[in-house]
């Protein structure tokens, strides 16, 4: 008579070594079990003359009806109904109400039937279906009782009472057992899914180390397909390397050199990500970054972010150089940078089983050439880059150069600094000599740090004055 509490796939296998078995009770089995218990109750009532013997046809109906419902819900157009289970349960509630009417409202058998129906409605459809099914069953019970009348005595013989309670209890216990098994299996599945989710997250974070965060994010959110695909976009391209690194590599042990290089890349990468740059690759001591893909804020903002990143890298290099000097590295390492702006081809290059997300084009070659021409501590930019950032950043004309792939000579400019950081009100100051180095960015200093810095500067000034005397 009743549907199974929850029908799910028989097996959810997330780990082939530990399959999660979920034993559902199919609708057909649940309904067959319920109608069998009702048939037993009705047969006992007929046997003890609680109801007329002419109700053998109703007994046959209890046995045949589950098979009829199974045929209607699986072999006819009704199978296309999304709520076929609930509709069939409403038919079951109607049938139960008619049965209670034929039982003449005899107390124990009628109560057993009602409890069976209410339990099934609650298990299958929750409170809403339970209320609907109960109201429908009560209505049909009242109508059938009004038409058929009630039994002469509402008291039930002992054997009929025992069988009714036992039949209803067996149905409820078996259904509850299957529900418990399903709940336990679903909890195991939930735990296994959670474990796999945590493993997937951990693995994705490990894999993300091999991709720029923007690219990794677009792949794992489904915004970008992993396939050989490219497109034309206007990007700001940045190249940098360390002047003096070759000489340093001859002086230092490989382990110490590796540690220094990794520290440099880590610091520069944080600056690049701060400004939204897509880190393309590390080659030797060189870094390649571009702005404008996978996300872009417009050519002007991309160019400004790229140049701003370069200026901060140059400032940050001074701090790192002071730290390296304190560690015994005397070679004066300097960063040099080149930036160009223009249309490039960006996307996945390579083979189906091994791809590289990168960019190609003459603007990439120009940025690389500008980087190789730059002096230590210098940032060279192309004319198009200059035209987009000149209102915010002071630049100096450096003439023209000839670059392969460009028909005409290319005007280039040197980045001086942010216009806001120039003049008497500038926030950034630096001073460096043998035995002395100072780097000051007043915008980043808190009030508490200001007091400590002033005290240190006063002590240093007193020391220098004493040595003069």
TrEMBL record:
Segments spanning the bilayer are 32-50, 56-73, 94-117, 129-151, 158-178
Q: Which SMART domains match?
A: CYCc
- Asked whether the keyword Heme is assigned, the reply is no
Alphabetized InterPro entries for the sequence: A/G_cyclase, Adenylyl/Guanylyl_Cyclase_3/4, MASE2, Nucleotide_cyclase
Per UniProt, what is one GO molecular function of this protein? adenylate cyclase activity
Guanylate cyclase domain span? 236-371
Protein name per its UniProtKB record:
Adenylate cyclase, class 3
């Amino acid at each position: 008579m009743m549907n199974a509490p929850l029908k799910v796939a028989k097996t959810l296998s997330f780990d082939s070594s530990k399959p999660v078995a979920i034993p559902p009770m199919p609708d057909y089995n649940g309904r067959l079990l319920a109608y069998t218990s009702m048939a037993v109750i009705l047969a006992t009532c007929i046997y003890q003359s609680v109801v007329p013997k002419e109700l053998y046809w109703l007994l046959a109906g209890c046995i045949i009806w589950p098979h009829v419902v199974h045929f209607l819900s699986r072999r006819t157009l009704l199978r296309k109904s999304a709520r076929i289970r609930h509709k069939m349960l409403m038919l079951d509630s109607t049938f139960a109400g008619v049965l209670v009417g034929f039982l003449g409202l005899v107390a124990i058998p009628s109560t057993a039937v009602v409890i069976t129906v209410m339990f099934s409605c609650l298990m299958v459809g929750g409170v809403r279906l339970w209320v609907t099914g109960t109201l429908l069953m009560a209505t049909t019970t009242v109508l059938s009782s009004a038409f058929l009348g009630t039994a002469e005595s509402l008291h039930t013989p002992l054997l009929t009472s025992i069988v009714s309670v036992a039949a209803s209890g067996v149905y409820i216990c078996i259904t509850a057992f299957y529900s418990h098994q399903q709940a336990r299996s679903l909890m195991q599945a939930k735990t296994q899914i959670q474990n796999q989710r945590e493993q997937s997250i951990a693995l994705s974070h490990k894999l993300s180390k091999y991709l720029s965060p923007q690219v990794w994010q677009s792949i794992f959110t489904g915004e970008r397909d992993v396939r050989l695909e490219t497109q034309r976009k206007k990007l700001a391209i940045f190249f940098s390397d360390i002047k003096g690194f070759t000489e340093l590599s001859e002086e230092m042990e490989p382990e110490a050199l590796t540690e220094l290089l990794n520290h440099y890349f880590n610091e520069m990468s944080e600056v690049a990500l701060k400004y939204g740059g897509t880190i393309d690759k590390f080659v030797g001591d060189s870094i390649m970054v571009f702005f404008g893909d996978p996300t872009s804020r417009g050519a002007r903002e991309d160019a400004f972010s790229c140049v701003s990143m370069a200026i901060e890298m140059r400032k940050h290099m001074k701090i790192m150089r002071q730290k390296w000097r304190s560690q015994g590295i005397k070679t004066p390492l300097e960063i040099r940078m080149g930036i160009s702006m223009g249309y490039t081809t960006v996307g996945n290059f390579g083979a189906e089983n091994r791809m590289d997300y990168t960019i190609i084009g003459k603007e990439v070659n120009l940025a690389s050439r500008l980087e190789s021409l730059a002096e230590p501590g210098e940032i060279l930019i192309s004319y198009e880059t200059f035209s987009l950032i000149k209102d915010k950043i002071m630049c100096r004309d450096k003439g023209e150069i000839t670059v392969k792939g460009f028909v005409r000579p290319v005007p280039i400019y040197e980045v001086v600094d942010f216009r806001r950081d120039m003049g008497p009100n500038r926030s950034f100051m630096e001073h460096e000599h043998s035995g002395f180095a100072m780097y000051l960015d007043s915008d980043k200093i808190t009030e508490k740090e200001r007091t400590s810095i002033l005290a240190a500067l006063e002590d240093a000034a007193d020391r220098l004055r004493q040595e003069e005397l």
